[in-house]
Design a protein that fits this description.
With 65 residues, this protein is mainly alpha-helical. It has 2 helices and 2 strands, in the order αβαβ. 37% of the residues lie in helices and 6% in strands. The longest helix is centred in the middle third of the chain and has 19 residues, at 29-47.
């Protein structure tokens, strides 16, 4: 169970982890830019969605390359 779920955050968009909340050092610059864009788009969907309990908005993974 994630920390966000344990504390009852209403909307959760999982990322790569605490050390890299909005990035991924294993990706090339272009891949990371695309990943960040998907992350921001998912976060915008999350904040525009009405929720009544903690809800996880999973980020769809794209193929690298």
């Amino acid at each position: 169970m994630s920390i966000a779920l344990r504390v009852g955050a209403p909307r959760i968009v999982p990322t790569r982890g605490i050390p890299y909340p909005t990035g991924d050092p294993s990706l090339t610059s272009a891949q990371e830019l695309a990943w960040r864009r998907r992350l921001v788009e998912q976060a915008l969907r999350a904040v525009s969605t009405a929720v009544t309990e903690p809800t996880v908005f999973e980020l769809e993974e794209a193929t690298h390359g």
